[in-house]
C-alpha cells in the first residue's frame, strides 16, 4: 500500500489512569469507582448488568486489581521511555479526578495529585510525545457516587467544571489535546462505568441514564468553552464507542431496525456534541420510553456553543442485528448485543473481529459530521504466552492491528480526515470489563497475573518491534 497516512499523523498508544496507575491511596488520592470494582470476568460482567450495587468493598471475597494496577504511578518513567523507543508521537492517558479532588466536591485541589501529572507531562515532553488527555474515563470519585448518586445529580456539573478549570489552568502549557467523557454513548448500556450509578431497577435505568447523559452534555460543552478560553489553540474532542450496526439480512424490516439502533447508539451523543443539538429522532424514542429530561434555562444554548473540535472513537467490533430474535439468538451477539455474524471470528472474549467495520465506522462518522476523526482505542485482548527465553510471539495481535490500520488507510483514501491512532492498552493493563490482567492488549508485557502475583517487570513483545516500524514508516510498512 502506498503511504496514505498524512505527515504529522499522531501514532501512539492509549491507557486510562485507573487501569495503569495503582497507588490508589498515595499522593492524597481519594477512592473512585474503579477502586471498588472486583477483579474477575464473572464478577465484573455481573456488576455491569446488575442493579443495586452498593459500591462497598469486600476484601474477604474479592480482589481489587485496580488498586495496584501495573504501578504506572511509580514506573511511569520506564514506561514512557519504552513508548519513546517505539516512536510514539502521542500518548493517551486520563487524569484520575480523585487525585485532583479526592472527594470531588472540595473547593481546593490536592497539590500532590496535580504535581504527579506535571511530572508525567514533563517526562513525555522530554521525548516530544504529545499528551492526549481524557478528563473522565470511568473513574468518578467514590464520594460523588455515594453522596450524590453519580451523574444523575445535576450537582456534578458544577464539580466537574471546577475540576476542568483547575486542570486546564495548571496544564495549559503542557496539554493541547483533550477528550471530555470516555465512550459517552456507552452510558445507557453500562451506566455504572460512565455515569457512576447502579440502576435501582430496570424501569428507572433509561430515564436515569439519559438524565445523567444530559448532565454530561452540559458539562462537556462547558469544558469545551473553558478549554478554548484558558488554552488558546487547544483541541477538545468527544469520545464515542462506535460500533456500526449491520442488518442481519436484506429484509427491509431488519435494515430499518439496524438503522434505528445505530442512530440511537452511535449518533445520538455525537449529534448533541458535534452539531450542538438534540436530534429530531430522539423525541419519538423519549416519548415511547417515557423519558423526560429535566433541563435548566440556558442548557441548550450552552450545548450549541460548546461543540467539540473533533471526534475520537474506540473501535473494537461491529454489531449485527435483526428485529425479531429467536430465543436461541438472544445473547449470541457480542458485548454490545445483537446476534452472531456468521462471517466473523471472535476473540477469546467473544468480541467479533471486523477490520472492515472500522472502515465503515470512519466513513459513517465523517459522512455525517465532516469533522476530523481520531481513533483513540482499538486492539485485541488476548492470552499471551511467555516463552522460556522471555519472548512473547504475539502474531495474532500484529495481524489484528495490521488489518485495522489498513482499514484506516482505506478510509483516508475515501476522503476521511484522520488525525491519529492510539492502540488501546499499549502496555498490558487491567481490563475494564473483566478486571483481568490476562486479557492483554499491550506491545509491552507486564509480569502481573490475575491473582496479583508477579514482578511487575516490563518486556517487549514481538508486536513492539512491529509497531515501532509501522510508526517509523508512517504506516507504509505493515
Ligand atoms: C473501552 C474502554 O471500552 O474498552 C477501556 O474505554 C477498556 O477502558 C477497553 O479497557 C477494552 O475493554 P476491556 O474490557 O477489554 O478492558
From TrEMBL:
<comment type="similarity">
    <text>Belongs to the glycosyl hydrolase 1 family.</text>
</comment>
<dbReference type="InterPro" id="IPR033132">
    <property type="entry name" value="GH_1_N_CS"/>
</dbReference>
<feature type="active site" description="Nucleophile">
    <location>
        <position position="377"/>
    </location>
</feature>
<dbReference type="GO" id="GO:0008422">
    <property type="term" value="F:beta-glucosidase activity"/>
</dbReference>
<dbReference type="GO" id="GO:0016052">
    <property type="term" value="P:carbohydrate catabolic process"/>
</dbReference>
<dbReference type="InterPro" id="IPR017853">
    <property type="entry name" value="GH"/>
</dbReference>
<dbReference type="GO" id="GO:0005829">
    <property type="term" value="C:cytosol"/>
</dbReference>
<keyword id="KW-0326">Glycosidase</keyword>
<keyword id="KW-0378">Hydrolase</keyword>
<protein>
    <submittedName>
        <fullName>6-phospho-beta-glucosidase</fullName>
    </submittedName>
</protein>
<dbReference type="Pfam" id="PF00232">
    <property type="entry name" value="Glyco_hydro_1"/>
</dbReference>
<dbReference type="InterPro" id="IPR001360">
    <property type="entry name" value="Glyco_hydro_1"/>
</dbReference>
<dbReference type="InterPro" id="IPR018120">
    <property type="entry name" value="Glyco_hydro_1_AS"/>
</dbReference>
